[in-house]
């Protein structure tokens, strides 16, 4: 095999709402992530995460003095960023994926002037990265929607949110144009079709057709993304800006043509979002879905042209597992990233029931590259597991190394087979709060953080076995995976 290209971007991925902390500090406003509560009894289920959220639910969380809200405190990267970035540099990171907290820059989401303290924080973070020749890969919106806009105009359901987002994006591009060359608009943009609140700030009060609200919000995000792409190209001509999708690879359960058709439908539901952002228009296959669900997308004159002119430079995506597509709804199911699935008898699963499928990553790489013919970037991939700290402080996470090794091997094969792959940033390169369950015990990192599910611990950082393994992978550009 030809191996990884010399400019391959090895690194790791995080999100502001899951590791930054500094809740409401230095002028930061409330976000949707700040209302995510940890529930000790088996954590928060995916159904709980995706259920419609009302204004009363949000106000309860904002005033709750008894509950534990881990994302408000994260792992305190806000105050420990120098220590953490030094550890990333020790591993040899070429890039570091992080997100900017929208309400840290615009506390209510739509102020006319940004919060200087928030901007200065990210200046310091980027400077620290660049000191070690680490390229920042910045997500503009990552599950951290300003509650001010949720209360004021029901979030992304309102077209007015486009203007607020474009202002926010332009402030970032102008401020960091000499420091950031890789950008993503919306993290896992397709989640807006599953839950309106988390990434969209949509409150269920008075909504008679939540799907209508969610897909209208998706349209507004498409327009906002396209305008951000155009602004990025104008302000930072040498930058690249991509989309980001939660990839859901779904195999037909059998060779029954009905199962195969279910797999096709699964791809349509999943890839609709990247089709619009990369191809620049709505695919015709969505027309029937919209009819069947009484959805009417309200467009304004010029929207179609904005989409055509604002296509992204590359496609990034998360990949953790594959799933099963079946026309029958019976059988055992297992958990997964955002969606549950039937169990695949050929695959093992993680502690949380996510099916481990490295070959599925190669399948996805080929499907996406064949479909779009733009560079691909794997910006989330990893194994959530319970780590044990030994008496001497060591953490022997061979299971994590095995998971990552098997996926990197498939990436290398895909590259050898012609896929244009830019880079790889495993998720949660340092332990952080889980997006779905708000747990700390579901750990992904190369770096252990002494913190439990209820926010207790020293916050001390320590290196796992995988830290030294990944350092060797980067040093050899993927040649040594032992």
Automatic annotation (TrEMBL):
Top-rank lineage group of the source organism: Bacteria
One GO cellular component term: cytosol
Residue ranges the record marks as coiled coil: none
Molecular function GO labels: beta-glucosidase activity
One Pfam family linked to the record: Glyco_hydro_1
GO biological process, one term: carbohydrate catabolic process
Keyword field: Glycosidase, Hydrolase
Keyword Hydrolase among record annotations: yes
Catalytic residues of the enzyme: 380 (nucleophile)
Record family assignment: Belongs to the glycosyl hydrolase 1 family.
NCBIfam families referenced in this protein's UniProt entry, alphabetically: PRK09593.1, PRK09852.1
Protein name: 6-phospho-beta-glucosidase
Native organism: Enterococcus ureasiticus
């Amino acid at each position: 095999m030809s191996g990884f290209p010399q400019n391959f971007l090895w690194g790791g991925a995080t999100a502001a709402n899951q590791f930054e902390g500094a809740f409401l500090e230095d002028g930061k406003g409330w976000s949707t992530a700040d209302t995510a509560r940890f529930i000790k009894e088996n954590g928060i289920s995916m159904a709980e995460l995706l259920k419609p959220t009302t204004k009363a639910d949000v106000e309860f969380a904002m005033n709750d003095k008894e509950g534990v809200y881990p994302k408000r405190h994260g792992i305190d990267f806000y105050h420990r960023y120098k220590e953490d970035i030094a550890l990333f540099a020790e591993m040899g990171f070429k890039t570091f994926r992080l997100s900017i907290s929208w309400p840290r820059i615009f506390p209510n989401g739509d102020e006319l002037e940004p919060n200087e303290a928030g901007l200065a924080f990210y200046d310091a973070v980027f400077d620290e990265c660049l000191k070690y020749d680490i390229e920042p890969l910045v997500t503009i919106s990552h599950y951290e929607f300003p509650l001010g806009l949720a209360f004021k105009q029901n979030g992304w359901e309102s077209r007015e949110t486009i203007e607020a987002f474009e202002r926010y994006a332009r402030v970032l591009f102008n401020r960091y144009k000499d420091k950031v060359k890789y950008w993503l608009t919306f993290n896992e943009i397709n989640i807006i079709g599953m839950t309106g609140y988390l990434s969209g700030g949509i409150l269920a009060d008075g909504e008679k057709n939540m799907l209508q609200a969610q897909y209208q919000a998706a349209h507004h995000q498409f327009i906002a993304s396209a305008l951000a792409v155009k602004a990025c190209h104008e302000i930072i001509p040498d930058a690249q800006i991509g989309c980001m999708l939660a990839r859901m690879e779904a195999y037909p359960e059998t060779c029954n043509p009905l199962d195969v058709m279910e797999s096709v439908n699964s791809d349509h539901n999943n890839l609709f979002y990247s089709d619009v952002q990369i191809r620049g228009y709505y695919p015709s296959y969505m027309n029937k879905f919209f009819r069947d669900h009484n959805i009417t997308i309200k467009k304004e004159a010029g929207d179609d042209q904005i989409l055509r002119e604002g296509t992204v430079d590359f496609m990034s995506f998360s990949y953790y597992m594959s799933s099963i597509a079946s026309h029958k709804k019976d059988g055992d199911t297992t958990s997964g990233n955002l969606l549950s699935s039937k169990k695949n008898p050929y695959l093992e699963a993680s502690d949380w029931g996510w099916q481990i499928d490295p070959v599925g990553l190669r399948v996805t790489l080929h499907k996406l590259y064949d479909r779009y013919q733009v560079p691909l970037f794997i910006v989330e991939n990893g194994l959530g597991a319970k780590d044990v700290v030994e008496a001497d402080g060591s953490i022997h996470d061979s299971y994590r190394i095995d998971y990552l090794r098997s996926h990197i091997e498939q990436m290398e094969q895909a590259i050898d087979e012609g896929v244009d792959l830019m880079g790889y940033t495993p998720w949660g390169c340092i332990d952080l709060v889980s997006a779905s369950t708000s747990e700390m015990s579901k750990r992904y990192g190369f770096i252990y953080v002494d913190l439990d599910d209820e926010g207790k611990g020293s916050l001390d950082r320590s290196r796992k076995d995988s830290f030294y393994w990944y350092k060797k992978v980067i040093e050899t550009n993927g040649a040594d995976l032992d």
